[in-house]
C-alpha cells in the first residue's frame, strides 16, 4: 500500500476537480491510502469523492497564502507521492514542497492547453503563476503530468519546458463497467418527448467552448426541426441567447443550466457536439462516447484528435468553421445511430478507471504497480 496526497484549490464545478476526485477513488480501490488536501475548501464536486478518501481543508483566503500551512502539513506527513493539479496550485505546491524538503516526491499536472489557458483569467496572481510555472517546471525533479500528448507538446513548444520535463497520463473519466450501465432518464422535455432530432452540448458558457459557433452551425442545418440543448452555466448566456434570436432559432435553442446527470441527457440525444476552441483532454467528449451517442468535435488544441484517433472514431472539423460543423452534424443525424457504436465505446474504454490509473501510477511511481 502506498500513501498518496492530491492537492487542489477546492472542489468547484470543474473538470480537473472532478477528475481528481475520481483518481482519488481509483487509488483507494487499488488498495492505497489517499488524502485530498484543499487549499481553501468545499465545492460541488465533493459529492463525487469516495468516503474512504481522507480530506484536509486549509481554509486559506487565497492560494498563495496557503504556502506556509501546506509546507507544515507536508513536513508532518510523509507521502510516497504528492500530486497537484492546475497551474496556480502547482506553483503553490512547488513552493511548499521546497520549504518542506519534499520536492522529490511532488508531481504537478497540467489539465489544459497552457498557451491558451493562460489568457483566460486576468487576475494578477494567476498571471504571475502562469509566468513562473514554466521556469519551475524546468527546475523540479519530476516531469509535469499532462492529460494529453497535445498538452505536453504545447508546453514544450510555447514555454521553456523541455521534452524531458513533461509526461502524460489519462483522465479516469469512466467506471470500469461503464458499458454495462443503463443510462438514467433525461430531464429535458425535448429529450423526453421528441418531435425531431436533438443535439446536446455540455460545458461552461464561455468563449473557450465555442457555443457561438455551434449555434451558427445549428442555424445552418437544412432540417429546421432540429433542436439544440446546451447544458451549463456561464457569463455568455445573454450573448448566446441573443445570437439565437438574431439567427431566428431561439425557439429551437435552450440553455437550461447545469444538469445533475449529463450522461442521461447525452444518451437520449441524437448527436453530441464538442465545439471548443481549446481543451486539454475533454471529459465531456469521453462521456459522450461512452453512451454510444454519435459525436462531432472540433480539431481544437488539444485532446479531441487523440480521443477520436484523428477522425477514425468520429468526425473532426476545424475550429470556428460553422459551415463544416453543420455539415458534420447533418451527416451524423442522417447516419444510422448504431453505425460505429462499438468503435465509440472502444475509444472511451481507454479512459476507464483501471487503465487510466495505471498511467498515473507509472508517472508518479515509475511503474504500474500499486
Automatic annotation (TrEMBL):
Matching Gene3D superfamilies, A to Z?
Answer: Glycogen Phosphorylase B
Q: Which UniProt keywords apply?
A: Glycosyltransferase, Transferase
By its UniProt entry, which SUPFAM superfamilies does this protein fall under? UDP-Glycosyltransferase/glycogen phosphorylase (SSF53756)
Pfam family for this entry, one:
Glyco_transf_4
Its Enzyme Commission number? 2.4.-.-
PANTHER family noted in UniProt: D-INOSITOL 3-PHOSPHATE GLYCOSYLTRANSFERASE, GLYCOSYLTRANSFERASE
Q: What is this protein called?
A: Glycosyltransferase
- Gene source species: Pseudomonas retamae
Amino acid at each position: 500500500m502506498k500513501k498518496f496526497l492530491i492537492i487542489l484549490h477546492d472542489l468547484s464545478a470543474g473538470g480537473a476537480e472532478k477528475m481528481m476526485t475520481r483518481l482519488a477513488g481509483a487509488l483507494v480501490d487499488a488498495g492505497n491510502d489517499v488524502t485530498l488536501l484543499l487549499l481553501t475548501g468545499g465545492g460541488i464536486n465533493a459529492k463525487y469523492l469516495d468516503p474512504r478518501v481522507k480530506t484536509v481543508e486549509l481554509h486559506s483566503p487565497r492560494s498563495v497564502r496557503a504556502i506556509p500551512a501546506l509546507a507544515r502539513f507536508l513536513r508532518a506527513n510523509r507521502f510516497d507521492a504528492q500530486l497537484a493539479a492546475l497551474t496556480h496550485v502547482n506553483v503553490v505546491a512547488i513552493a511548499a514542497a521546497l520549504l518542506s524538503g519534499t520536492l522529490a516526491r511532488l508531481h504537478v499536472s497540467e489539465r489544459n492547453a497552457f498557451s491558451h489557458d493562460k489568457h483566460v483569467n486576468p487576475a494578477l496572481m494567476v498571471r504571475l503563476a502562469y509566468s513562473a510555472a514554466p521556469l519551475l517546471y524546468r527546475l523540479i525533479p519530476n516531469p509535469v503530468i499532462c492529460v494529453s500528448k497535445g498538452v505536453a507538446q504545447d508546453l514544450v513548444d510555447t514555454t521553456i519546458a523541455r521534452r524531458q520535463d513533461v509526461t502524460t497520463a489519462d483522465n479516469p473519466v469512466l467506471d470500469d463497467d461503464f458499458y454495462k450501465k443503463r443510462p438514467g432518464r433525461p430531464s429535458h422535455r425535448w429529450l423526453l418527448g421528441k418531435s425531431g432530432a436533438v443535439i446536446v452540448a455540455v460545458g461552461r458558457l464561455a468563449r473557450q467552448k465555442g457555443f457561438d459557433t455551434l449555434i451558427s452551425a445549428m442555424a445552418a442545418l437544412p432540417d429546421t426541426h432540429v433542436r439544440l440543448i446546451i447544458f451549463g452555466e456561464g457569463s455568455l448566456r445573454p450573448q448566446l441567447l441573443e445570437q439565437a434570436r438574431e439567427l431566428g432559432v431561439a425557439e429551437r435553442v435552450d440553455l437550461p443550466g447545469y444538469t445533475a446527470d449529463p450522461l442521461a441527457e447525452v444518451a437520449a440525444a441524437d448527436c453530441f457536439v464538442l465545439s471548443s476552441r481549446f481543451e486539454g483532454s475533454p471529459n465531456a467528449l469521453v462521456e459522450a462516447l461512452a453512451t454510444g451517442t454519435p459525436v462531432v468535435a472540433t480539431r481544437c488544441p488539444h485532446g479531441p484528435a487523440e480521443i477520436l484517433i484523428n477522425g477514425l472514431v468520429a468526425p473532426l472539423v476545424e475550429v470556428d468553421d460553422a459551415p463544416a460543423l453543420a455539415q458534420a452534424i447533418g451527416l451524423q443525424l442522417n447516419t444510422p445511430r448504431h453505425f460505429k457504436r462499438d468503435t465509440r465505446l472502444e475509444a472511451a474504454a481507454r479512459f476507464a478507471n483501471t487503465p487510466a490509473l495505471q498511467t498515473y501510477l507509472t508517472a508518479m511511481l515509475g511503474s504500474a504497480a500499486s
